[in-house]
Amino acid sequence: MAPLPPYVYASVPLILVSLWHAICSSRSYARSPSLFYARTWHPLPRVRYGELVVEILALAAATAYYATVVCSLRRGSTSEILALQQLCMLIFFTGVFLITFISEATVALPLPQDAHFSLLGVAFAIECFVAVCSASDPNLSFQLESFRILAALAAFSSSICFLLAWRSSSFLLSITFSASLALQGTWLFQIGVSLYSDRFLPEGCHHLSTGYTQCDVEVAKQRAVTIMDLLLIIHAFVIIFVYVFVYALACRGIAHARRNSGYDPMDVNGDSDHLQMKPLSKVVID
């Protein structure tokens, strides 16, 4: 397998972006449920396109890293091909966010939100394929299970993106997409500490000189796979509780702001027959 980047560092941007999306989506939905629509990015308070710029820079740095990895590997080897797959995936993600930035910040490429979600769905589908290829040796069951779970999470994020492209007004789909990003981030962290840290290796497993992680005894293999499955359940529980807490805080904050201001926003998508409007006076133009 090709040398991998530090997954612990790669997980931090995903977790932060997912929490930011969860906060913004929850506040927007709590403010006006009928006017809610999902977004692939959310403006920062003082730097409107700050999120997109940071994501593009982070992806560009990761792409540059993988380019150096590809150059350092033996030409034509399996490791080089796997590294090229990961490099292409990062290039595609960078291109998607560049297209989104150009579309939102300029008039050169006007695209609807559903197109942005469709592009993200394709990007996560490519990530799913790359994750499956990252550990293809059936003898490495512990490592294979870790990347199978990552591939399943990427496939889940891809399907949610395509559903959001079809129905961007669904808050449930939007918050689920944010949660899937958070779960990918925490799982990347788990892969980093479980596969590439001696302290957290399951009993009976060890590192190989090729970069793989192997468990010699069948009992140790089964135990390591079971541990990873259990850790995934724990990750999912933690993220669900955190997101419920974030949504509750967002609703409480909006309700508190309304009580203090005495302002209740009007639902423009409601029944207009019940709106009392002052009749316009007749104007005569000479």
From TrEMBL:
A UniProt-annotated Pfam family: DUF716
Q: Where in the cell is the protein located?
A: Membrane
Q: State the UniProt keywords alphabetically.
A: Membrane, Transmembrane, Transmembrane helix
Membrane topology, as annotated? Multi-pass membrane protein
| Transmembrane regions | 7-29, 49-69, 81-103, 147-165, 171-189, 230-250
Q: Name one GO cellular component term.
A: membrane
The family classification in the record reads: Belongs to the TMEM45 family.
Q: What is this protein called?
A: Uncharacterized protein
Higher taxonomy: Eukaryota, Viridiplantae, Streptophyta, Embryophyta, Tracheophyta
